Amino acid sequence: MSANKGWWAPPEGEDSVSQKFLRKTRESPLVPVGLGGCLAVVAYRIYRLKARGSTKMSIHLIHTRVAAQACAVGAVMLGAVYTMYRDYVKRSAQDPGEK
Known about the structure:
Blueprint: H1 17-27, H2 30-47, H3 57-94
Keywords: Membrane, Transmembrane, Transmembrane helix
Domain HIG1: 2-94
Transmembrane segments: 30-47, 67-85
């Protein structure tokens, strides 16, 4: 048993959680943008919860879910466009004589 039971340390050769998050962010930079958009929509809709007026709670929650999903799908689409640009346009610009 370890003397320091309160802290978890990754096995040797593995990244810590923060290093893994930063590496994943570099690999796909729009994932944190999508998460941030979803969190922003949810925070705004929670803020607006008091001022919803006569709107039913279920309708308010449906609108919140749709807006958060729109942010996530938008980030996925931007990520796909960015990946296509990186793979095809940049690569063909770097290697003009290989075609």
